[in-house]
Amino acid sequence: MSGLALYGAIVGTVSIVLGGGSLAWQIYSWRQDRRTRVAVRLANGFLGGGAVQALLTITAVNYSAHPVTVNSVGLESQDGSKQWALLPMVPGSTIPGVIKARDSGSTWVVVEDASRVGLDLFKPLIGRVDLSTGQTFQSKRTVLRKP
Questions:
Q1: CB neighbour list of residue 120: distance below 8 Å, 6 or more residues apart
Q2: Local structure of residue 15 (DSSP, 8 states)
């Protein structure tokens, strides 16, 4: 085999490997761009103006390249039954509703109301959002109050 033929074989092999890698990367990128990615977070908050009220906030962050529609928002019961308490839409909240691409939406519940229905902020809570596509996204277990 001559030097020129060997050089051609090496360049051809490298080209095929790089072309295959490029194709794989494009397929991966295309799939990632079209995948729905939503993060759910729980946090403490407060409502000012007059009497200050302690709140539990649920925020859904849409990391997708497309808008998502949140149909319902809720909290997992803490009795081990895996049931969910759905939260009604409150004034000033943006979910349930549409969250634009790479944007967020949030809602809240007054801490006294959450306690009244049996939720204990000293124990881990899980927040959840249900999308119109049937997908469900949950927060990490979060303890909002420390004893």
A1: 78
A2: H
Nearest-angstrom CA–CA distance, 64 and 70:
13
Structurally, at CATH architecture level, domain 37-138 sits in Sandwich (2.60)
* Residues whose CB is less than 8 angstroms from the CB of residue 60 and which lie 6 or more positions away in sequence, other chains included: 38, 39, 40, 70, 73, 95, 99, 104, 105, 106, 129, 137
DSSP-derived 3-state class of residue 40: strand
C-alpha span between 68 and 38 (Å, rounded): 9
Bridge partners (DSSP) of residue 104 are 61
Both tokens assigned to 33: 């761009």
Residue where the block lists tokens 């124990």? 123
d(CA 80, CA 98): 31
Encode pLDDT of 9-56 as tens digits. Answer: 898 999 999 999 999 999 888 887 788 999 999 999 888 777 788 889
Q: Which tens digits make up the pLDDT trace of 68-127?
A: 999 999 998 888 788 888 877 788 899 999 999 999 999 999 888 888 878 888 899 999
Domain locations along the chain: 1-34, 37-138
